[in-house]
Amino acid sequence: MTTAPDLFAQHQDTLQRALTAIRERSYWSAYDENLKAYGENGTQSIPDGKAAFEAYLGKPFPLEQAGTDGQVAGERSPYGIDLGLSYPHADVDTLLRAAQDAIPAWRDAGPDGRAGVVLEILRRINARSHELAQAVMHTSGQGYAMAFQAGGPHAQDRALEAVAYAYAEMTRHAAEATWEKPQGKRPPVRMTKKFTVVPRGVALVIGCNTFPTWNS
Predict the structure, then answer these.
(1) Which 3-state string (H, E, C) describes 78-110?
(2) How confident is the model at residue 210 (pLDDT cuts 50, 70, 90)?
């Protein structure tokens, strides 16, 4: 089983390059914006993405989450297609409790663990950029190239940038320290301290219909 430290090790080079970019305020992109750069090494081609999108149509969207108490349907594409999709409707209180219950384990994973997991999420999302492009196109009404770039690689770059800034803040102070105060002729007062970055809580993001993934 792949662990969070394993994922951090796999993606450490990407994170370090992103940290350099935010420190230098220089241009750098981790995710290719060329539509034809995808289709190998486990990434979807344009036909793959279209087939994956079409497989969702006419049925409930397969999202498993706490508090589902029904389905919401009726979405139409700006291109005039009746998508036939339905989405799970969730009880908000149940969702919030589930998110809050997950905080201790997420906190205990530490900055490296959290960064490793999120960078792996981004890798997997990037591999399905053509699938996302289809969804963004039929949500926003954008042309395919814009839906792909803004809804895929550009949004993923902004996500990586956010991870880099968060990681830099979480790690700029020592996680452990030996604190020692001289006492003259008496032995010094000495304490070993350990510091844990604690999450602020649960956040809600509502993406607009023009650039839903970029805004998120």
Answers:
(1) CCCCECCCEEEEECHHHHHHHHHHHHHHHHHCH
(2) confident
